[in-house]
Design a protein that fits this description.
Elements: E1 2-6, H1 12-23, E2 27-29, E3 47-50, E4 66-70, H2 73-88, H3 94-103, H4 113-123, E5 126-129, H5 130-135, H6 137-142, H7 161-166, H8 181-191, H9 200-203, H10 206-223, H11 240-245, E6 257-262, H12 273-289, E7 296-302, E8 305-308, H13 313-316, H14 327-330, H15 339-350, H16 353-361, H17 366-416, E9 421-424, E10 440-444, H18 448-451, H19 458-474, E11 477-480, H20 483-493, E12 500-502, H21 518-527, E13 536-540, H22 549-562, E14 569-573, H23 581-584, H24 587-593, E15 594-598, H25 602-611, E16 614-617, H26 626-633, E17 638-641, H27 646-650, E18 654-657, H28 662-674, H29 676-690, H30 695-714
Parallel strand pairs: 1-3, 1-4, 2-3, 4-5, 6-7, 6-9, 9-10, 10-11, 11-12, 13-14, 13-16, 14-15, 16-17, 17-18
Antiparallel strand pairs: 7-8
Length: about 725
């Protein structure tokens, strides 16, 4: 026997009838549905149809050959929604059926379309496109000769789709189930609906199309289905497995191009934006490494060692989230407060609530200003002494270790010279590559150390500057993560135009998509101390000055003062960074309206994004800004700063504001809160805009940059 597998409504029954009429091959089915008949001897048939996942098959023998039929997932979803409305649950709503099939909550609908497709691509020996089956059914059937014995075909008996729809076919008409001819004809008309490709255009709304693409777009592209509805060419680097099983010939390569990626971030426990960026790229590149004939080979340089990417699977599959305090432990407990914090809290206890609200919202807490002045004066000299000691110590250490480092660098340089390209995901990590003459590509994420030096330590500024100096001296190529960062790079470094490239980052769509499970969301909110039943604005970032949380809170409190019965909370999520006393000290007031959750696990973010009225992201500067894109992928609009990269990334997926203008920020909050129609419209635009970004696209474009850099170095 062989398995004839597919996701439901993908043409499996059509194919079974072709095998029966043209080759005389009967087939059976295997399922786990107690309401439908199952042949006891199904495994004795030459072909067995199934929609189940490979892990659910009986017999479970992995050596049993398998054919998988794929179809444009949009046509499948529409057909499945009709099938449920007409046959499975007569009278059910088409729109709701379609939405449920797209989301496939908790692994329903045979694991969901993408999961079913991906697991069967890995398991199947042959893949057949439904669209090819319609165009040339006999040619598709003949491909089975590679895995089973086929009798000589009788092409004169080749059944047409319309004939099966209007007649009583061997499979799909209910034949053998005791139905009348009239009932079988009616069932055939429902089972064989259209028999054409692209029918989804007439029945899938733009909103549903965007929702579908947010869940399944990257898998669709992996199969060669374009967002515009056309069949697109498969990418030989990322889609080789599909191409081979479709019977397509892949191009040959004279030799592999060897790339070394500096990856010290991957061994650190923190999960900052640079680590997310590199881990996502490596996940994509790891797909290429599965192809023995790939034109690329990737190694990592980490902890002073060269590690093949193939050996790095454990780290790639690692959950990079760091355990942090959640809601109940995120605010500073009394026993850990400084003497000044205790004085502030005591003073706040003596001031009436309405006065505290006024003082905070107008930013005139006098003791804060006094404290800041005293602290700067008292600790300025100490900081100078400590900084001087650090510099002297660093100078001595450099002298002591220079000879050892030179010997180590000489050894490493010989190894580095074997590569066609070296990619540094962060300029600060240049040190080991000072002597190599190989082409270098350095990703620059932002210029905050120059534009906002007050938000950085002296050593971080020094390291970043040394990295930029290295780029200029080596005439390295730069990869910017946004057009805004590209502009800053050209302005700050003045490199040749052909040395500066741009590839957008993306959000992980597997993690960040619209969530509808209210029970799950309720548990997540309880986990972080977020009240259920009250709408909220969500802010997500490391809590530090550049993120402008002070103005965000003040704008929200001003809104609460303006609307006395405001039914709205502000949820501030993220681990505590630095210079945060002013945010946490107003605990007495914030417990009523503003909630600090602490660090949020990645697995919980999509649910919180999905339920928020909007994400607030009013940073003074961002090189890219991943949280807005993550929220947009969940259909949530963003209230964002009108500076740096954020307008470029978010576009019409939210409302922009001057991050220094508290009144304007408050107005944007008010518009989102008071206008559900606007909120819904912006949410749809946010989801649509998010579809312009993907890590698959980022990886493909990064490889194109690799090729340009390697090619230019060989000229």
């Amino acid at each position: 026997m062989i398995w004839l597998a597919s996701f439901p409504r993908s043409g499996n029954t059509f194919f079974r009838n072709i095998l029966y009429e043209v080759y005389g091959l009967k087939s059976s089915t295997y399922h786990q549905d107690a309401d439908y008949f199952l042949d006891k001897d199904y495994a004795a048939f030459p072909c067995v149809k199934t929609h189940l996942l490979p892990s659910q098959l009986v017999p479970a023998d992995p050596d049993i050959k398998a054919v998988y039929i794929i179809r444009d997932g949009r046509d499948t979803m529409v057909s499945l929604a009709h099938h449920r409305k007409d046959i499975v649950a007569p009278g059910s709503d088409f729109h709701e059926n379609l939405k449920a099939a797209i989301i496939a909550e908790k692994g329903s609908f045979f694991g969901g379309w993408s999961r079913n497709v991906l697991e069967w691509i890995d398991r199947a020996d042959i893949i057949i496109r439904y669209e090819d089956l319609l165009a040339d059914p006999l040619a598709c059937a003949e491909r089975l000769r590679a895995i089973m014995h086929l009798p000589a075909p009788d092409a004169s008996k080749l059944p047409g789709f319309n004939k099966m729809k209007a007649g009583v076919a061997e499979y799909g008409s209910g034949k053998g189930r005791g139905l009348s001819e009239e009932e079988m004809l009616a069932l055939s008309a429902k089972n064989f609906r259209k028999g054409k490709a692209g029918g989804w255009r007439d029945e899938m709304s733009d909103e549903m199309h965007d929702l579908f693409w947010s869940y399944h777009g990257e898998v669709m592209e992996h199969l060669g289905y374009g967002r515009d509805g056309n069949i697109i060419s498969l990418n030989p680097d990322f889609d080789f497995d599909v191409a081979l099983k479709l019977g397509q010939k892949l191009p040959s390569h004279e030799r592999k191009m060897k790339v070394l990626l500096e990856a010290e971030k991957m061994v650190h426990h923190d999960n900052d934006g640079v680590k997310r960026y590199q881990s996502e790229l490596l996940k994509q590149f790891n797909k290429i490494e599965q192809n023995p004939d790939a034109r690329w080979h990737f190694d990592l340089f980490m902890s002073g060692r060269l590690v093949p990417l193939k050996e790095f699977n454990q780290a790639l599959n690692h959950d990079f989230s760091m355990p942090e305090q959640t809601a109940k432990g995120s605010q500073t407990p009394a026993e850990k407060r400084s003497l000044f914090q205790r004085f502030e809290f005591a003073l706040l206890e003596m001031i009436p609530d309405r006065w505290v609200s006024y003082l905070i919202s107008h930013n005139i807490l006098v003791f804060h200003k006094l404290y800041d002045g005293i602290k700067k004066a008292a600790f300025g000299l100490i900081d100078f002494v400590i900084d001087t000691v650090k510099k002297i110590s660093a100078f001595i250490l450099r002298l002591l270790f220079r000879m050892r480092d030179n010997k180590r660098l000489n050894r490493l340089t010989l190894q580095f010279n074997r590569y066609d390209l070296i990619h540094l995901p962060l300029q600060q990590h240049f040190f080991s590559f000072r002597k190599t003459a190989r082409p270098l590509l350095v990703t620059i994420h932002d210029f905050t150390h120059r534009l906002f030096p007050e938000h950085h330590t002296a050593i971080n500024i020094s390291n970043a500057e040394q990295g930029l100096k290295f780029i200029s001296q080596r005439k390295a190529h730069v990869l910017a993560v946004s057009a805004s960062t590209l502009h800053d790079t050209q302005k700050e470094l003045k490199l040749p135009e052909y040395h500066v490239h741009m590839v957008h980052e993306a959000a992980d769509r597997e993690k960040f998509s619209f969530r509808i499970n209210r029970d799950e969301t309720r548990k997540i909110k309880e986990k972080y101390g977020i009240p259920d039943g009250i709408p909220y604005l969500l802010s997500l970032s490391t809590i530090e000055p550049r993120k402008n949380l002070g103005n965000t809170i003040q704008a929200f409190l001003r809104l609460a003062t303006k609307h006395e019965g405001l039914h709205l909370n502000l949820v501030i999520a993220g681990k505590k960074g630095w210079m945060t006393n002013k945010l946490f000290v107003q605990n007495k007031l914030f417990t009523d309206r503003v909630f600090f959750t602490g660090f949020i696990d990645d697995g919980d973010l999509a649910a919180l994004y999905s339920e928020a009225l909007a994400l607030t992201y009013l940073s003074f500067y961002e090189g890219f800004g991943l949280p807005p894109l993550e929220a947009m992928s969940c259909g949530t609009p963003v209230i964002y700063s009108n500076r740096s990269s954020l307008p470029e990334i978010i576009a019409d997926g939210g409302l922009s504001a001057n991050p220094d203008d508290i009144e304007e920020i408050m107005t944007k909050f008010e518009q989102i809160y008071a206008n559900p129609a606007l909120r819904e419209s912006l949410g749809r635009k946010a989801l649509k805009r998010s579809l312009d970004f993907s890590w698959r696209k980022a990886a493909i474009e990064t490889l194109q940059v690799y090729e340009k850099v390697i090619s230019s170095s060989n000229e």
